[in-house]
Amino acid sequence: MDMKKNILKSICIIALTGTFISCNDFLDKQPLDELSSTTFWKTTKDADNALTAVYASFRNSTFSAVPASGPCTELEYLSDNAVVRGTGGAPLNIQQGGINSTTGGVLNDMWTYSYKGISAANYFLDNFDKVKDLYSEADFNKLKAEALFIRTFFYNELVVHYGDVPLMLQGAEVGSDYDRMPRTPRAEVVKQMLEDIDFAIKWLPNIAYTDGHAVQGSAVVLKCRILLNDQRYSDVAKLAGDYIHDPNNPFDLADDYAGIFFGKQENNPEIMFSIQFKAPDDFHALDQMVGSRMTIFPSFNLRASYEPNDPRIKMTMYEIGDPWPNNNKSGKFEEDGNKAEGLIPFTQLAFKKYVNPNVEVPKASTLSDQHIVKMRYADLLLMYAEAMFESGQGNDPLALKALNDVRQRPGVNMPVKPQLTREIIRNERRVELAYEGIRYYDIIRWDIAKDVIPTVQYDESGRMRKFDGNLWPIPQSQMDIMGDVWEQNAPWN
């Protein structure tokens, strides 16, 4: 299946079926109904197109990137790692505190796009049996496993951000009373997620990640994340350890840290799942938004978290005096001679990770096609080290080796740590995975967001961030639809 080639066609097919909920609203009361699914599910090509549309659910600024809009990497500002230029809207409300159910922006988009992905997956799963006889058992279950992996991915996003959410395992149809569905307790949603991801682990191939399709390693990482959110450390240690130490494990740390994000992404041995792009037909605006406008930039806090002489600093961010293509006077990262679209941020830092270092003054016409990395092997190694430590196995040499393997990767070569501590593990995750959308999830599951977020300065006047809580409010548009069926998350209820 050529994912890029069939995306637009597939989205149109899915949007006309009427068997999944509107892209614009999770509980849309008027689903479209113009094309019977019985006329579509006839060939393996039909199934491939439908699965392509499930993957296309990632293609938005909340989960990857799109043309002329900010990439999902801008959501790093949810954590204490980054700051955005706030002139209004959800980013400003989140940074200064005081979000509510009408804030909009990412607080709505996370909900809407997650349920869009779930709906597309449900449509696929509802109909895939119609062509079952056209596949071998292994091939049929592989494609089913991919859809379940994606559905589980989106449900994990929902429970992290909103807690209890409606658990929908089939497409919603007119007359199904879906607009009276209660929020399912988080524990029940997680139970279903684990059941589905176990199926995915069983049937996805244990091969390197290459073509945009989830593989067994992708599902292992997702299950580890789900289990860590529930502090099931022994289970994570067993799952991650078995996979890491399996001689058939196809993944390894890359020999070029910067290349993971730009320049050496194709067939990279470390990438375990990503959203892939290819210009000129399939592109986004990361270089413009991040590299030229500098709409998001590192916080003082992130810079201070690096150990002296850690080379990942220069591969993650620009500092004053660094070589910089957007200065036609000195060729350095400094305001005098700056020809970028934005001023150098007040932190005197800008993100370099993911940015094409060869593009001068990227604009909307500049076609960026960096793959957006969602999972990589270093994360799995560090989750394993954390789970081993938190389950009382921190003295196991394999746990320490996992962390030091990350620190000693080629091109980084940081000194080995003689032992594991919680502080060492957490800081290593922070610097290794900076600007990858991981930090916010970490500080939420460690329940330290309330402590670290208020230490972040978010503007040049010295104002400090405020934190409104680990859960977000359910978007008001959904609360209005559900009437008295749902109770809003505290403290907005």
From TrEMBL:
It is found in: Cell outer membrane. Its main location: membrane. Residues 25-213 form the SusD-like N-terminal domain. It holds the Pfam family SusD-like_3. InterPro entries: SusD-like_N, SusD_RagB_dom, TPR-like_helical_dom_sf. This is SusD family protein. Residues 305-492 form the RagB/SusD domain. It comes from the Bacteria. Belongs to the SusD family. Keywords: Cell outer membrane, Membrane, Signal.
